[in-house]
Structure formats: structure tokens, C-alpha cells
Amino acid sequence: MLKKTFFFILILSLPVCLNAQQNIYTLQDVVALAQGKSLWSLRVQNQKEQVFWAYKSFQARFKPQLGFDGTLPDFNRSIDPITQDDGSEQFRRRTFTSAELGLGISQRISPTGGTVFMRSEIGRIQQFGDNEYLTYRANPITVGLYQPIFTFNQFKWDKKIEPILYEEAMKEYNEDIEGISLRASGLFFDLLLAQISSEIAKKNRANNDTIYKIGLGRYELGKIAENELLQLELNLRNSEQQVSQEGLNVETRTLELNQFIGNNENTSVFLIEPTVIPEFDIDEQKAIEQAKQNRQQYLSFKRQQLEAERNVAEAKGESGLNVQINGSFGLTNTSEEFNLLYQDLQDRENLSVTFQIPIIDWGRQKSAIKSALANQELIKNTVAQEEINFEQEIYVLVKRFQILKSQLEAAIIADEIGQKRYDIAQQRYLVAKISITDLNIALQDKDSAKRTYLNALRDFWNAYYEIRMLTLYDFEKNEVINYE
User: Fold this and answer.
1) Stated pTM of the model
2) What secondary structure letter does DSSP report for 276?
3) pLDDT tens digits, residue range 314-347?
4) End-to-end Cα distance, the chain
5) Taking the CB of the first residue and of the last residue of the chain, which one, N or C, has fewer CB atoms within 10 A?
6) Residue 262, by phi and psi: left (phi above 0), alpha (psi -120 to 50) or beta?
């Protein structure tokens, strides 16, 4: 008895378990899942992290760098030339070890392109053999400067361009997320259209089956001709084939959507048709202004012009007088006893000025400068044209969105009319008031109106997410879109 009761409960709960495997999604649900779980979302997240840490590495280059280095030990056994007391040199066999440790800090100077440093060193040499000795050397502190003059300053231009590259990447991340939303919207409506088409096909099959059975009865009574009966049967067979085809379309579109939103279980999906149209207006100038402020592309215009200026500065900086100043000041001492090493310290100074002046290069440097200037002018004109195209793209998209909204409103009414007309035509055919031809026309018009409505619905929402992607602005909430 207990086993029978358990089996009965299991049978009753089976439909509930099966229904639990079906996911019910709205358009917003699908977009949120795609943004959070899809492989595309994970990929753009990884790209964002890569750019973030690369920029952190760039910033670290302009902060003080502290380093510790040394050699422990350096063993050497060789025959070397040794300077004698009288100034002559003789080869002597030597065996010695040396060791050295150093601690230094350096800081780049981006406005001038130089580097300042401070360093402390200590070293030890011990020789073995007939002339055995042990000596120490210490440079407790050395302060110095490496400074190029009249040369191209890479540091200064990096400080200008790298932050723009980072900001571009962050804005591109926002665009990529909105691009995922746009793609998710397309897949949502692909499946929604397939599901609704499947339901239409099933209803048409049921209606055609009912009409065929009625027509068969009328044919047996001699009220309709065989030709009309055959037309009814053909309608039924076509609707059965349509049901099979639409069922396959649903399976295919479900698989595509599940894969995109990261649902690896490939469960069945039921989509809720978005019947509420967002009520907001978009001003063309506001859309263009927001796109300029928020999009990566507009920042890239500024970056391209800066890079062209940098290339000109680099060509000019490498074509004239190059001077390098190296200077340092510090304290030093040497002793055979370690405890005396930091007593009676002596000055230690170094100053060198090196220069390079090109005399004959057969026009190479002049050509480099002219090429950089020509490229700068080309980029200036190209960016100016791209800015015009940029504004036109946003303007046309906003206008198209407004038209699509009007078309959707008209398609909703047409769909309601088409369905109502078919219902009336079906009832009139059942009471033999119209012909099968008129009924088929009403059916075709109904299905055509439904497809027009669904396509208008898809076009509207795709345009909605495309505007979001190209402006990075939510006109429904009046706020900038930022996923950072």
C-alpha cells in the first residue's frame, strides 16, 4: 500500500518537475543574463582587467623605484695584465673574490625627460696567494641626474596619451556590454518570433482541421464541390507541415539563446512578449552631445591628433643637436678594516656632457619631419570627416528610432484588425456566407499582419539598444550608462 501511495505521488509530481525545467524570461531578463553570464561578457571583463592592470603598470613607471642589487660572490682565477710600480705591465696569475651590494631609488621627471637617483653601495675584494689582501669600499650616498636636452621627451607624451587610451578602454567596455545587450535582444526576438509563429501554426492547424471536418460533412451532403474540399484538405496538410517547421525553428533558436546567455543545461525557454513601449522622446542634439561625451570613438579622435603631434615632435627631436648631461655627487671611502669604512669620508663627483650633431644625412631627417607633418595633416582631415560621419550616424539613428516607434504603434493596430477580421471571416465561412478563397485571404492577411507587428517590435527594440550602445546614455532614465 505504501509503495502504491509513493508511486501515485511521484506520478502527480512529474508534471511539476517537468515544468520546473522551463525558464520564463522577459526581454530584460535575457539582457541581464547575457551581461552577467555569457562568454562574451566574461571576455570583455577580462579585457577590461587587462587594460586596468596595464594602466596601473604605466602609472607605476612614474613613481619612485626602489631597488636592491648585488653580486655575491664573484670568484675569479685568471692571468691578467698588472701595472707595475715603474708603469710597465706584466701578466700575473691572480685569484680573488669580490662582492658588491647596492640600494638605490630613482624617479623619472616627465616634464624634462630626465631621471634623478640616489644610491648607496658597499663592496669587498679579497685576493689570495703571495700578495694576499682584503679591502672594502663604500659609497654611503650618491645623488645624481641623467638629463637629455634638445631631444624627444617620450615621458611627457606618454603622460598625455596613456590616460586617454585607458579612458578609451573603459568607454569601450561600456560599449561592449551594450553590444551584448543588442545581441541578446536580437536572439530574444528570434526565439520569440519562432515561438509565436509556432503557436500561430498550431492554431491554424486546429482551425483548418475543424474547417476540413465541417467541409467533409458538407461535401457528403452535396453542399460543396470536391474542388473546395480538396482545397480545405490542402490547407490542413500545409498547416501540419508548418507546425513541424516552426517547431524545429523554436528548438534551433532556443539552443542559440541558451548558449549566448550561458545556460549550458539547454532547458526549454518561454519568452514573454514585451507589450509595453517605453514612453520617451530623444532630442537629436542631446543624443549627439551624449555620444561625444561618452563614446570611445570620440576620445580616439583626440588621441589620434595627439599621436600625430607626438610623431612630429619625435621627428624634430631626433634631427638636430642631442645633448646628454650626466652628473652625480656623493661620498666615498676605502679601508682594509670594515669598522673604519665610514670614517673620514671623501667627496665623489662626476659630471659629463655628451652631444651629437648630425652634419650630412642626405636629407633623411628633413624627410622624416616632412613625412610626420604630412601624416599630421592627413589625420586632422580624416578626423574632421569622421566627426561629421559620427554626428550623422547618431542623427539618422534617432530619426529612424522615432519612425520605428510610429510603425510599431501602427502595426499593433493592424495586428488587432487582422485577427478580428479573420475571426469574423471564419464564423461567416462556417455559416456558408463566404467562400474558401475569402477565408484563405483573411488567414493570409492575419498572419501577415502578425509577422509585420513582430518584425516592427523587434526593429524597435533593436534600435532602442543600438541607441544606448552608440550614445552610452539611457534616455528612458535620463542617465549616463556606466558599468565600470
Assistant:
1) 0.76
2) P
3) 888 877 788 899 999 999 999 888 888 888 899 9
4) 62
5) N
6) left
